Every structure is written in C-alpha cells, then in structure tokens.
Amino acid sequence: MSMALAVRRLSRLRHFSTQVSLRSNPDARDHGPTAGKYRGDRGSSSTKSSVDAQESAKFAALSGTWWDELGPFKPLHAMNPVRLLFLRSGMCRHFKKDPISPRPLDGLTILDVGCGGGLLCEPLARMGAHVTGIDAVEENIEVAKLHAAKDPLTATILYQHTTAEQLVQEKQQFDIVAALEVIEHVPDPMDFLQSLSLLTKQDGAVVISTLNRSPTSYSLAIFAAEYILGWLPKGTHDWSKFLTPEEVALLMERASLTVRALLEEMTGMFYDPLKQTWRLADDLSVNYIAWAAKRGE
Amino acid sequence: MVGAAVACGLVSSPLTRSLKIAVIDGSPISFDKVKKSDIPDPRVSSITPATVSFCKDIGTWDDLKSKVAPFDSMQVWDYAGLGYTRYNAADVDEPVLGYVVENGILVSSLRARLQGSDVDLLCPTQVDSVIFPHRVGGLPEEEGSNWAHVSLKDGRSIATRLVVGADGGKSKVRKMAGISTTGWDYMQEGLICTVRVDEHHSTAWQRFLPTGPLALLPMNDDFSNIVWSTTPKKAKELKSLPSEDFVNAVNNALTKDFSPPPKSGFAEVLTNRFLSPYFGNLAPSATEEFQFPVKVKSVETDRLSFPLSLSHARSYAAPRVVLVGDAAHTVHPLAGQGVNLGFGDAAALIKVLEKGVRCGLDVGEISLLNEYENTRKFANLPMMAVLDGFQRIFSTDSGPVNALRAAGFNLVQSFGPLKKLVISSAMSNGFSGLPGLLRI
Predict the structure, then answer these.
(1) Do A102 and B16 touch (CB under 8 A)?
(2) Minimal CA–CA distance to B73: which of B259, B178, B215, B202?
C-alpha cells in the first residue's frame, strides 16, 4: 500500500509545475500552471510565467535527487523496469521488431511528455530509439541533460523545456508518444490526448499511464496519503479527475487512438511489498498503463 | 573460474552478447586444447546436475563431458559407528548425483569457450586498483564520468559500467569497493591428493572423524581423490608420512579407527516396520546395507593443504560492482558445494544482466544489482548455515551429540521423503527450490 502512495508522492514531485500550488491559488484547484499549457492558450510559449516560483524552487531543490536510486525517487526507479518492459513488448509487437535484440528500437523516434529527470528517456535511448524529452520545469531538463551526458549511449537524447502544444504548433511528429503519470493533472484530458495524437505519426502509437478512479485508489492515494499519513497536502489530488480505463479508452478513440485489446494493451501495475518489486497485473484498480495505436485516417 | 563462467554466459545469451566484456586473470592463457593428463590433479570439485545444466547453457559441457567422473551414490557415516546414510541417484530418479572434475579442466573449458568470442582476455595481468564513484564521493550530478575505473598492474586503464569481482576469498575488488566480510576460521586444514584404489567405483564416501571429515571421491579409471579436513597439526603429520604409511592411515581412518562400522539392519527394521506402512514412498537406498569403501592402494600426487574458513561478504553489490563466487562467500568443503554456489551466482547474475539489457538500464545500476544480491543471499545463506551446522555437529564428541547424529543418520537413511529433499536441495545449488532460477 505504501508503495502506491510513494509513487503518487513522486508523481506529485515530478509534475510540480502541473499543480498550482494549491495553497497559493485555491481557485485553480482543478488546473495547474498547465492551464496555460493545455486550456485554450495553444499559443503560449513558455510556461515559466504560469509556474509558481515558490513551488518551482522547492522542486528545483529536489531535482538533484532524481538519479539517486536510493533517495526519495527510489520507488519510481523500482517501477521503471516494469514500465520499460511493457513499452518494449508493445513496441516490438506494434512495429514488428525482434524482442531479443539488444537494441530493438533502432530507427524509431519517441517523445516523452513530462520526462522529469529522464528516467524513461535514457533506457529507451539505450534500446536504440531516437528520444526527445520535454518537461515544463526547467530544472528537470537541466538535470536530465547533465545525467544523460555521462553515458555515450544516452548522450543523443534531445531534451527541451517546452510543452506538447508547442510541438504541435511546430508540426513535429513521432513514432511513439509517451505521457506517463501526466494525464491526471491536465485540466482537459480530451484536449491533451488530441495533442498527443497529433504528435503521433500515422501507424504510430501513444502510451499513457495514470491512476484509476476507483474506491481502492481513493482509499490509498487520497484518503491514506493526504488525510491519514499527511504525505501529501490535503487537496493535492482531485480524485474526480482520475480516469477509469474505460474513460481513457473512450477518449482515446475520439482522438483517433485505438486500444486494440484490453489487458494486452492496458495493464495494471502493483507493488509487491514482499519481493519489493513492481509487477504488471490484471488488476487495474490503482495504477495502470495503456497502449494505443494511431489509426490511419 | 566463476568470472570466466559469467563471461561465457553473457556471450551465450543473445541479449547480452553485444556488451563489451573484458576478463582479467593472473594466469596466462593456455592455448592448448584441454587434455586429460595421466594423473589427475588433486584440486577437484564435485559439480551438481544444476551446474551441469548451466555448463550446457553456456556452451562448455561438450568439452567437459568426456573428462568428468560421474558418481551415483554416496555413503556418509561417522566415527561413533552408530548410524550411516546411503544416497542413491535412483532415489530421485536421476542417473547421477553429480560429477567429479579437475578444476584445471573446468577453467580450460571456460577459456576455450571464450577464445572464439569478442571478449577481451587480459591475461596474465592483475588489478592494481579500482576507483568506484560511490567511494570517491560527490553528487551524481557533478561533472565527470560516473563509471568505475580499473587500473591494471601492466599500466593499462579501463573505464567500465560494471566490475564483477570474481577474484576469490581474498578479493581485492571487494576491498576496493569497501565491502566488509564476516566469518570465522574453522581451525582446520583441508588436505588433498590423488590416489589409486583397488577397483573403479562411482560412490562418494565420507566418514566424519573427530577431527573432521575424510572424503574419498571417485575419478576416472582407478583414480580417486582424497579430501581430508583435519586439525593443522594432524595435516602436517599426514603430509610428512612416507607414502605407504599415509595410505595405511587413510584406509584405517575409513574403516577401523575409533569404532567398528555401523550395523545395517537397524535402518531396515525402522523402515520396514514403522515408516513404510505409513509413508510408503521408499527410496531405494533406504534398504541398502552399509558398505566398506574401496581400498586405497597408493598415493599418486603431492599432498597439498589449505586452511578452511567460512566467510560471507556483508553485501554482494555496491554501485557499479558485484561479487560472485568465493569473493562473496567461502564454505567448508564437507559437502563439495563451494564451486556449485559460485556457478549458481554466475547464473543468477547473467539473468539479472539480461533483464537490465531488456529494460535498457545501465548494467551497473544498484537497483539491478540488488536484485542479484537478494536472490543469491536467499539461496546461499541457508546452505552456508546448514554446512556450518554440520561442521559443528560433527566436530563435537559427546554422548548426546553422538546419539543425535546417529538418530539423524538413521532417520535420513530410512525416511524416503526426507532423503529425497536432502538430495534435491544439494543437487540444485541452494535452497532456492526453483531449478529454473539457474537456467539462462
């Protein structure tokens, strides 16, 4: 139980920019500084102005711990292998690549939206993909760049301090667009998915991961984390903004993204406290990850 | 040896084949194809079927299979003469319990496997020092590489993501990584030599004497191997005896000394009257009588000895470094498990590195290496505790303990399911209980 909570806490940290500091702007509970990013202002360039300086600085202080595997981001590091295995098998299946090749993603372009310190970008680059990572918090991008430069296999990653909307404006497209632990923060998931879909090439795919809106996730991520243990400030999460897998599938359909087979392309993730590892599971009641193919027009 | 095994395994797996690997060893490469010399070297190991399976996976079994000596039964008894246990491969429906093989042959087969591959064989040379980023200090975000830097005695320097420390009980890599060990001396020495016996046999004999176990292991033709764990004083004495006297000492220790041999029959009675009506499930060896071991005729090599101790590294992994084999753990030779635990480590490490490559991770990441550590500690520690326990129980000469041992012998001898459990655990390189763990 605590690990699901820890992951939530970490998602909070990673997308600090996407929460309006709930203390400084009580009206904006439902929208973050992402308001500027995703709602209406397609043309807004930098999100710096809509990010609360105080919160941003707070997160900037944590940015140095992204890559400390035994530090505050430890559960996220622990969850990484499972997400990567899911992505890898999805990509090999979709693009007909050899799953036992050491670099199966050679020739594919990937966009990671909300990349944080680059935990997802680096392994994908090692698997052979050409990776672009974007995040709204500049400190994250700086940390990501510094770390990626240390390994020749990851030095080719392109990191940018920008938004998905901006890239849509620039008419960029990628084989795969990944947005893990982002959609629960955006004010308008439909618009967000539309942007992701526009950024995906024909016959490409989109991957998202998020939390389910279920009694289980309420008791763990909201009630326990915010009201009992005080791990997150009260009101950090708006449980009503979590999306169920069915809703996500429906919204994706409307954005021309098809989830072909439930359970093969939509899987739960849960933490096994005995083995201290994350696993993919049939149970989608708390965390889950979904793969959707972009339909040809 | 275990280091070379790791390299062979990595090369044999399609996922890890593309990793750049260098093996550093102090002894020169010998390009000769392995040949059996006339008299077997006394430094041997007994390898379990799980290890054989690993050798098949890494491509060295073809080379080895004609040079190993199989054994299909085992007899264990002690000086008190109150009980004995016989094990037979047929108890678990297997053709053999294990194989005895010269260490030199194991090493050669591994080297031969590496010859044709892309692995850099840097021998002979030795590691002078290793700089690990976590020991230097500083945040990961600071400028500069966060890889490990290995300096060799011949002046070369290598930067690497992962250092696999397979440099034995006195591991330098382990020291450089700042990993401490715990353990104790057994106050015993292991004396080894090759002997000729009066007939070819395929049984491993082991008699526990007050000073330690004496084991006679079968080899090809009429050769056998002696492993005598005893006090340093006795070891010195034995080494200085003229050959004939030594041969007599061995034969007496295996048969006459201390007390007459155990009577068969007790276990049979126990089995037939009390246990089999309820439990069935009899192991064939439960009704085998006690047998006298083969007679030693002559000693064929020098008598070598080495001190025995138990040691265990507090951790098997640190950022960018991992320990395998004796560098991580040493055990008493009484059950011949040392090499098998090492190969078990190699198999587990290869599996973990495969996972790392599959997930695109940096293979030196501590979270990955911790997985290896947890798996192997889970398998190794119970085995080490059991072996240590045996060592203590068999070194204690007192009425109640002797009776306890006798009860133990008789119980295992007669109770089929227990015997099968003992055999399976020994054959699978640890109490992991999952044979699949050791297959790549």
Answers:
(1) yes
(2) B202
